[in-house]
Amino acid sequence: MRGTPTVTALLASFLSFSHTLASEQQPFEFGEMSAPQYTLPPLPYAYDALEPHISSQIMELHHSKHHQTYITNLNNLLRTQAEAVHASDITAQVSVQQGIKFNAGGHINHSLFWQNLAPAGSPEAKSGAAPELVKEIEKVWGDEKTFKEAFNAALLGIQGSGWGWLVKVETGKEQRLAIVTTKDQDPVVGKGEVPVLGVDMWEHAYYLQYLNGKAAYVQNIWNVVNWKTAEERFLGSRADAFKVLKASI
Ligand SMILES: [Fe+2]
């Protein structure tokens, strides 16, 4: 799990994070104190499409209730923030940053997650749909099986709620793959980081079906990983990976 940042670093990150989000939207209209509003992106498949690995009940609740709640909360907080900015009320602005980070993270993470899943047996759910990514995975981990074992170990090592990610990290002309975990709804939005594949490790993602069988969920998720999306994110830019957010405005 990533280390705990200082309060100052956290605040700076919140402010820059909410600025990044806002800059992707229409500008604030201070006269009316309006703020950008997000909407729930539709799933690219039916709620029962990931059966038997992820139940229809989980998918429907997860998408239409959990994800929607993050969006509703985010929209309300962005409105409050816009009003606070308009009123030059710095304390009110600071008071909403934690909530904005949490709920925006929830919106970002779930939007990415839905797209990196696909029905089992579909061409997208086979690693052959990601030839360049698999080549790089083999360079780093030796083979696909070892990579999956490392990824699963990271997922099962998460304490409490969080996410596991395969991330492309770009530093200058160099790029490398890394497995990282994030706490709660912290998104992967660091400089040069492109989230290639994410797995939701909150209990709401599996508990209704797998109960305490977290290891079985982690094992079965590989049957419904969308390798085509992973390949596109691996070959693409940060903006490409996050384009689903722009589309949902
Ligand atoms: Fe979730």
Automatic annotation (TrEMBL):
Residues 37-118 form the Manganese/iron superoxide dismutase N-terminal domain. PROSITE patterns: SOD_MN. Mn(2+) binds at H62, H110, D200, H204. Its EC number is 1.15.1.1. It is found in: Mitochondrion matrix. One of its GO terms (cellular component) is mitochondrial matrix. It holds the Pfam family Sod_Fe_C. Residues 1-22 form the signal peptide. It is an enzyme of class 1 (oxidoreductase). InterPro entries: Fe/Mn_Superoxide_Dismutase, Mn/Fe_SOD, Mn/Fe_SOD_BS, Mn/Fe_SOD_C, Mn/Fe_SOD_N, Mn/Fe_SOD_N_sf, SOD_C_sf. SUPFAM superfamilies: Fe,Mn superoxide dismutase (SOD), C-terminal domain (SSF54719), Fe,Mn superoxide dismutase (SOD), N-terminal domain (SSF46609). It catalyses: 2 superoxide + 2 H(+) = H2O2 + O2. Keywords: Manganese, Metal-binding, Mitochondrion, Oxidoreductase, Signal, Transit peptide. Its main location: mitochondrion. One of its GO terms (molecular function) is superoxide dismutase activity. Residues 132-233 form the Manganese/iron superoxide dismutase C-terminal domain. Its cofactor is Mn(2+). Belongs to the iron/manganese superoxide dismutase family. Homotetramer. Destroys radicals which are normally produced within the cells and which are toxic to biological systems. This is Superoxide dismutase. It comes from Epicoccum nigrum (Soil fungus).
